[in-house]
Amino acid sequence: MIVVARGDKSGVDGIPMLLKIPRLFDPWGGYSILGFGDILLPGLLVAFSLRYDWLAKKNLRAGYFLWAMIAYGLGLLITDVALNLMDGHGQLALLYIVPFTLGTFLVLGRKRGDLKILWTKGEPERVCPHVRLESMEE
Q1: Which residues span the membrane (predicted)?
Q2: Cα(75)–Cα(48) distance, rounded to whole angstroms?
């Protein structure tokens, strides 16, 4: 992961591919690393939940976005705890973040009865406003 994150040896500054998180109580000033893939992939699910809520015209509490953000934050917190407990060795952020975000999304979708629509179509059932206007004119 570190070799990929550093890029090639051309000497040209590239796009940073990881975040360095300083360890809180490390007397040597060490840091843990978290790759962008570990952040962006679950972030796509959070972005999807915002899009779904917007299309379904759900408010913040009744939608999925707020709960996905809370789960994402908890997943990052657990990742940070795991980094500190394991001294930065052998952690996989996706092992902690994905179950929190995807699990929360699946549980809420099942509980609210939206899981089949979320999984297959990805957008809520909605009627085209033009169809409604034509039927009212007749």
Answers
A1: 28-50, 62-83, 89-108
A2: 18
Return all residues near 71 (Cβ < 8 A) that are at least 6 apart: 100, 101, 103, 104, 105
Contact 112, 104 (CB under 8 A): no
| pLDDT tens column, 58-100 | 898 899 999 999 999 998 888 878 877 776 566 567 788 888 9
Angle at 48 (CA atoms; ends 43, 53), nearest 5 degrees: 130
Whole-angstrom distance, CA of residue 44 vs CA of residue 134: 37
pTM exceeding 0.90: no
Q: Which residues contact 26 (CB under 8 A, 6 or more apart)?
A: none
